Amino acid sequence: MGTSTRRSRRLMAVAAVAALATGLLAGCSKDSDSGSSNDGGGSGKGKTTLTIGTFGVFGYKQAGLYDEYMKLHPNISIKENVTTRTDVYWPKVLTRLQAGSGTDDVQAIEVGNITEAVQTQGSKFVDLGKDVDKSQWLDWKNAQATTKDGKLIGLGTDVGPMAICYRKDLFKKAGLEADRTKLAAQWKGDWAKYVDLGKEYMKKAPKGTKFVDSASSIYNAALGGASERYYDKSGNVIWDKSAGVKKAWDVAMSVATSNMSAKLKQFDKPWDQGYANASFATVACPAWMIGYIEQKSGDAGKGNWDVAAAPTASNWGGSFLGVPTAGKHQKEAIALAKWLTAPEQQAKVFAKQASFPSTPSAYANLKPAADTTAYFSDAPITQIFGDSAKTIPVQVFGIKDQPINTAITDVGILQVEQKGKSPSQGWDAATNEIKDVLGQ
């Protein structure tokens, strides 16, 4: 496959070495993965140590849930192993699942990887359907984590309804409307309208700022509202024929070939610095990103950030907690996974960082933390994300959904956005990468 293939194989090799060596990822935050995590014992104080492998910011530690659980269960000690990016985290997990050792007691699974887990790793996870009331979760959420023979390998954590988070202070300086309701009306129904507003922003953009963080974020947001993605219902790969992919690619290219993008790769350190320096005015933000923005923008962002409804209802992300059969503390791990994903705990995580629950019984009483509400200019976060969640289309995911997406965003789009390649050249680069991923 030429240069793209060699680059892909080098990247995969580097990722594998990094994962197997230290599990540390330099990027958005300091990771705490210590490699093989099941030592078969406890903390040396008569306690059973349970490890939980996560990526990004799940919010369990931030919401005090680990401390609460350990207080309720004095015989349990919890250690969280965090990897920032899921495209680094998941290959590492697969390696350990296949080896039958080194997994965490509780293992997070991102929605882009759940089909692969269900279809190729189902036997490596405990059937949690025997231990829970499955009616607590959204039906489609349970379906994503259920094998053909009815085994439930993951309990739903959050879902990712989309909004637009924006700096109203920068909008005002650019002479644009800053009211969330009026803004949402301007771009309602079409991401192209959002891009058009970006062109207006750039005419009087405050010095050193751009309208949006990256073209990839717009791609993910637009694709999250499409029922057709990379696979059809029969499991056939259709990424190169998908109407949803084409539409998302086209809107991303209109950003990548303009001057409105900060050209940042999401979750890398410069992206974090972009928040801290207020270098971009908007970001397509799923609910789980609220806490991230608050953390990375810091005190200076309080009251300057606001939230408006996205152009179309869209979902980006959402995860599950599974219990690997290789774990040595399965009974205790199942109990922890059940507790962390119960409606009460999902509501607590939402209160801390607005990660939207996959348990409908939690919706009626959801309230973000007072400091989060104040940080985002008293935006009605629950209503905005809730309205989106109710109308998100059912989407089909496939075994290689996540790596296909990464090839398009981190290879194809970046070729155009950061290296000045044409959209057709970017598409060709993504195509070569995807063929390599699929073994074609």
What do you see in this structure?
The structure is a single chain. By secondary structure, the chain is of the alpha/beta class. It folds into two domains: 23-159 and 317-391, D-Maltodextrin-Binding Protein, domain 2, CATH 3.40.190; 162-315 and 398-438, 3-Layer(aba) Sandwich (D-Maltodextrin-Binding Protein, domain 2). 45% of the residues lie in helices and 13% in strands. It has helices spanning 2-21, 65-72, 86-99, 111-120, 139-144, 168-173, 180-187, 191-203, 215-223, 243-256, 269-276, 289-297, 330-341, 343-353, 370-375, 381-391, 401-419, 423-438; strands at 48-55, 76-83, 106-110, 155-167, 210-212, 280-286, 305-309, 315-322, 356-357. Helix 1 (2-21) crosses helix 3 and helix 1 packs across helix 18. The chain is globular, with a radius of gyration of 21 Å. Mean pLDDT is 89; it is low at 1-44.
